[in-house]
């Protein structure tokens, strides 16, 4: 009977440690992603942003699975990291739109120049 209690106790401890490891892994993934965006997002193209968006959704789903296990301090840290990620993503979207508009404006200038050149010869 004593062996069963010891085994049961060891099993509970193992589950608690595994749960702690998993919730810490979720926070680490979010922190790593935030750092990745901070350091590399300025070089992202549309495909990179699509991958980043999917990755952010996957990471936040993983974090939400452990929501009840987090301390208030961990929840604050998670909120800060999610905010950083959202900020980097918003900045990237703005820059991407600006780049596209600049490309369109340059193309439009080229079209107007071509029309002007075509009619200039008449």
Walk me through what this model shows.
It is a single chain. The protein has about 120 residues and is mostly helical. Helix content is about 90%, strand content about 0%. It has 3 helices and no strands. The longest helix has about 50 residues.
What is this entry, summarized?
With 122 residues, the chain is mainly α. The protein is built from 3 helices and no strands.
Low-pLDDT segments: none
Rg measurement, Å: 25 Å
Mean pLDDT: 79
Shape: rod-shaped
Protein structure class: mainly alpha
Give me the count of strands: 0
| Helix segment tally | 3
For the sheet with most strands, the description reads: none
Reconstruct the topology from this structure.
Blueprint: H1 2-40, H2 46-65, H3 72-120
Helix pairs in contact: 1-2, 1-3, 2-3
Short key terms for the protein model shown above:
122 residues, mainly alpha, 3 helices, rod-shaped
